[in-house]
């Protein structure tokens, strides 16, 4: 587990980008109050998802509007058809943590690798 940031660093309904062992991660505070982390690149083209809009527990790609379910990584609409990696988030004592492998890279929970 490594600490990414404090809970206050990610206001509800927003996303930030974090470098975790060389992997860009979009850390999202969903409108449901939960924190989520996904690989910070759309599966359709090389666009940072952290720059998109948070709606409910989805994150929208700003370029063509595909929306990704933050719980599964699956796109809920075209043009993206492939899921993005999802990383489990742990919130402890006001800080946000991700599980990492021996090289410090985040471990996806949905079986999708980049
Ligand atoms: S680049 Fe994200 S939907 Fe096209």
Identify the notable features of this structure and list them briefly.
Rieske Iron-sulfur Protein, three-stranded antiparallel β-sheet, binds FE2/S2 (inorganic) cluster, single chain, four-stranded antiparallel β-sheet, iron-sulfur, 114 residues, metal-binding, mainly beta
Shape: globular
**Helix-and-strand structural type:** mainly beta
Low-pLDDT parts are none
Q: Write down the secondary-structure element order.
A: EEEEEEEEEE
Small molecules bound: FE2/S2 (inorganic) cluster
CATH architecture: 3-layer Sandwich
What does this structure look like?
- One of its GO terms (molecular function) is metal ion binding.
- This is Non-heme iron oxygenase ferredoxin subunit.
- Keywords: 2Fe-2S, Iron, Iron-sulfur, Metal-binding.
- With 114 residues, this protein is an all-beta fold.
- It has a single domain, classed as Rieske [2Fe-2S] iron-sulphur domain (Rieske Iron-sulfur Protein), CATH 2.102.10.10.
- The protein is built from no helices and 10 strands.
- It has a 4-stranded antiparallel beta sheet, with no helix packed on it. The chain has a 3-stranded antiparallel beta sheet with strand order 1-10-9, with no helix packed on it.
- A hairpin with a 6-residue loop joins strand 6 and strand 7.
- It is globular and about 40 Å long.
- The two termini are 20 Å apart.
- The model has no long low-confidence stretch (mean pLDDT 97).
- It binds FE2/S2 (inorganic) cluster.
- FE2/S2 (inorganic) cluster binds next to loops.
- The site of FE2/S2 (inorganic) cluster (FES) has 10 residues, from loops.
């Amino acid at each position: 587990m490594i600490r990414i940031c404090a809970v206050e660093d990610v206001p509800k309904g927003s996303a930030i980008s974090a470098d975790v062992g060389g992997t860009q991660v979009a850390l999202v505070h969903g409108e449901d109050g939960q924190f989520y982390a996904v690989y910070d690149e759309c599966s359709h083209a090389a666009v940072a998802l952290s720059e998109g809009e948070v709606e409910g527990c989805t994150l929208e790609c700003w370029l063509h509007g595909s929306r990704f379910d933050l719980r599964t990584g699956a796109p809920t609409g075209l043009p993206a058809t492939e899921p993005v990696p999802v990383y489990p988030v742990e919130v402890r004592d006001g800080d946000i943590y991700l599980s990492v492998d021996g090289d410090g890279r985040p471990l996806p929970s949905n079986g999708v690798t980049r």
